[in-house]
Specification:
The chain is an alpha+beta fold. It has one domain. Helices cover 33% and strands 27% of the residues. The protein contains two helices and two strands. A two-stranded antiparallel sheet has the order 1-2. Strand 1 and strand 2 form a beta hairpin. It is globular, with a radius of gyration of 12 Å. The termini are far apart.
């Protein structure tokens, strides 16, 4: 998938950086604190593996 108008979000955590970058490409600019607040500190990783879909998370 190609994300048009991509501009990387500068964050301290991989989950908020990935989410912030994707939202920023849609014209939604949020602070890292707001991204954590929306997710209540929940981090997730969604990956496509050879054997299928992989989802992992952490509460922090």
């Amino acid at each position: 998938m190609i994300v048009k108008n991509f501009s990387p979000f500068s964050g301290q955590h991989c989950e908020t950086t990935a989410t912030g970058s994707l939202l920023k490409s849609l014209g939604i600019d949020m602070s890292e604190a707001m991204l954590f607040g929306i997710g209540e500190g929940l981090g997730y990783i969604l990956g496509h593996e050879k054997h299928g879909l992989s989802i992992s998370w952490r509460k922090g």
